[in-house]
Amino acid sequence: MINEGKSNSILVSGESGAGKTETTKMIMRFLAYLGGRKATEGRTVEQQVLESNPVLEAFGNAKTVRNNNSSRFGKFVEIQFDKHGRISGAAIRTYLLERSRVCQRHQ
């Protein structure tokens, strides 16, 4: 990315229960490690991005037959880097929330 000067994308896809959410978390931790800054006052952008995962899971995950913590929504994560390869910003957009599973208990 730094050498080529071009944006990059990573698409994580797979069958239900294949580990897409956990893989995405690992990728985000790795990118936060590579693009992290030295400890400063307050929480860094990379910490804030990583800390958003449990919040999103609390509102958008549900138990299914195959998975006790199944994501019932899609997530688009954009992490911006400066010219030195350090994280400078981020945006997380959710979509396709499966409301019937998240908002109601199974009878």
Automatic annotation (TrEMBL):
Molecular function GO terms recorded: actin filament binding; ATP binding; microfilament motor activity
All residue ranges annotated as the Myosin motor domain in the record: 1-107
Annotated TM spans: none
Taxonomic source organism: Ambrosia artemisiifolia (Common ragweed)
Name of the protein: Myosin motor domain-containing protein
InterPro entries: Kinesin_motor_dom_sf (IPR036961), Myosin_head_motor_dom-like (IPR001609), P-loop_NTPase (IPR027417)
PROSITE patterns: MYOSIN_MOTOR
GO BP: any one term: actin filament organization
GO cellular component: cytoplasm; membrane; myosin complex
Top-level lineage group: Eukaryota
Binding site for ATP: 14-21
Keywords: Actin-binding, ATP-binding, Motor protein, Myosin, Nucleotide-binding
Any Pfam family: Myosin_head
UniProt keyword DNA damage present: no
Family: Belongs to the TRAFAC class myosin-kinesin ATPase superfamily. Myosin family.
